[in-house]
Amino acid sequence: MAVFSIIKLSELGRAKRIDAEYYKPEYLNIYSKLNASGSKIFLKRLIKEIVSGSYVDSYFEKGTLYLRVNNITEFGFDLSDIKFVDVDFSKIPDKIKIKTGELVLGRTGTIGITHLVDERLNGSVISQHITKIVVDENHINKYYLVAYLNSDLARKQMMRESLGSMQVELTLDATKNLIIFLPSNDLQARIGKLIQEFYELQRSSQILYSQAETFLLEELGLKDFKPKYKKTYTANLSDALSAHRIDAEYFQPAYKEVIKRMDEKNIELKPLMQFILNIQKGVEPGSDNYQDKGKPFIRVSNLSINGFIDRDQKYLNEEIYQQLKETYEPKPGDFLLTKDATPGIAYVVKEHIEGIISSGILNLKINEDKINKEYLALCINSIVGKMQIEKDGGGSVIIHWKPEQVKKLKIPILPFSTQQKIALFVHQSHEARRRAKELLDIAKRAVEIAIEKNEKEAIDYINTQVGE
Q1: Judgement on whether residues 438 and 327 belong to the same structural domain of the protein
Q2: How high is the pLDDT of residue 110?
Q3: CA atoms of 15 and 131, how far apart (whole Å)
Q4: Other beta carbons within 10 Å of 62
Q5: What beta strand segments (E) does 406-467 contain?
Q6: How distant is the alpha carbon of residue 169 from its chain centre?
Q7: What is the pTM of this model?
Q8: What's the pLDDT tens digit per position in 339-378?
Q9: What burial letters (b/e) apply to 233-264, b meaning 16+ CB within 10 Å?
Q10: Which domain holds residue 296?
């Protein structure tokens, strides 16, 4: 059924916008709720500094970390795909560097995702698609502000104020003029505490996963291994013919080093195909069927080693979802593996999700009598899998990892008891991450309850959810 929103001509003049989307009822309702709350203020009144990053086109193997918008996810920072810049070479000003405790906000893509900069990112440079916000903590609790900016009400406000057709962008002026709900110091502190615990659990999750990977590499004799890429090298014609490859990168000696190291330690290696009972490739319903709401269509960009990411998420309608879900909906325990664009991301599904996986993702049925699934995923996500996949990857624009190459991926075999110990670290990491997600969701919902109802109900909700 069509939805109408009638706006006076005088109101069009004040807003300086004539696009119908700007006046959608769901957007207008946000302002009605904020006006009714009585406790609101522009963001620019609560901050010391706000600045957007800059475009840098010269990347380096080492240097200063360059934070891009794809590194900011709903539940923290994803640093699995990072770039480095030379600040002197690119003449990068200090104002677009970030410090621990400052906020970064994604201004394109999934607009409005906001997080506090942690120690890993101190001194990093931000891209033009990110806005840095330095909070005046005399005026607002910065942890509360993270919860508010990530809430549904704030994110819809940002979407409304965004500009552009092909790539929607939240301008710096629009960001400064975001309306912030400013509750009592007590409620700010309670919600802020949830966000602090969220970040602590995120750090615990990262540490546990790092421990799992370190344990794995120690057992494989690869703990301090760093591949040495050579600028010049030779290859036999017979090797090129047997591999059906003539691109020089395929024969880079560094790719052989990781296998050689494990051979020297007498680690048994088996092809992945020995552990696969079945392979199911995802589906591509066509971009014409993408929509802004509905059931998630999970593309490669929406999958990480830690699970599903709401990054520029696309959706399918209920009818298409019902047609595809029996075959293409991931279920708890499924082993997902990306094969295109960013090949080699492995993840064992932990929770039920109503969604469809794209054709760039494989769903593998693993024989658990032969190998631990979490251990297998870690092997593929580690340098063991990355080096092999980097060698196999083909394609000039989009990298493709062919199913026959997937099956030949060499997997190191450790004793089952060792696999289980490693898998336990991974499991604990995911549990910490799951609890962190819960706390973030509670914090965001508490903000919304305070706006829609009152502070007392928001506090009661927090107490009920966290058991206080």
Answers
A1: no
A2: 82
A3: 23
A4: 6
A5: 410-413
A6: 19
A7: 0.87
A8: 998 999 999 999 999 999 999 999 999 999 999 999 999 9
A9: eeeeeeeeeeeebeeeebbbeebebbbeebee
A10: 268-413
